[in-house]
């Protein structure tokens, strides 16, 4: 049918295989959506690659990869433009109502209600955007990397289930207090490895994190964990193994007397 024919004509991004392709990289010989192109060409030699349209023709002067449809920047710009248009419409409507003496029901005006809903929606997309920005994707990669190499669940949960009180039990200590100490030690090691990966990715930012205590970096940890949670909600088929480990870590982190700061 017509819908299936249209679907077959769409060329999808080589990277995410989810969004329709918008750009061709003559050097990489691949096609990308605007967001994936910006993310993959953010540094190194790829930063000098000049994209073209899918047919090979140059982009217009006003077109840039980070402003094309599909990126978070484009969505926010469109939202702001729509809200500005709505504000002008509301202003004209209010002036008309005041001129006509119909100002009694302004608080229940449907246009005003739509504008308030638009503001609420603008607040929501700050925390649940349609797609992650390139910087958020970088942080997500760092989080996934440290989750893959972390042995937190092996050292905390497996040892407790096999040996009862865990390491503390083996060496004559009490069960509960020793497990809390082990959870605190493993969490601090997890946070340290995460900060180390940030140093590799962004030396200036990572150095600032390393110089501070773990508790002083609470806001950074909260943000990166929130990015992982949002990405999982939007992509249930991703992070199949690492997300479970993340949930174990966060559950232990909010346990009483384990940490002296909030990570969620």
Question: What would you say about this model in short?
Answer:
By secondary structure, this protein is mainly α. Helices cover 60% and strands 2% of the residues.
Question: Topology of this structure?
Answer:
Blueprint: H1 2-9, E1 23-25, E2 30-32, H2 34-40, H3 72-100, H4 110-127, H5 134-149, H6 152-163, H7 167-170, H8 175-201, H9 203-211, H10 218-234, H11 242-253
Antiparallel strand pairs: 1-2
List keywords for this structure.
264 residues; mainly alpha; two-stranded antiparallel sheet; globular
Provide structural commentary:
- The chain is 60% helix and 2% strand.
- The chain has 264 residues and is mostly helical.
- It has a two-stranded antiparallel sheet.
- The longest helix is centred in the N-terminal third of the chain and has 29 residues, at 72-100.
- The protein starts with a helix and ends in an 11-residue tail after the last helix.
> Order of strands side by side in the largest beta sheet?
1-2
Radius of gyration: 25 Å
Strand-pairing-aware structural class? mainly alpha
Task: Tell me the fraction of residues in β-strands, as a range.
Answer: under 5%
Give the overall average pLDDT. Answer: 76
Biggest sheet record: 2 strands, antiparallel
The count of β-strands is: 2
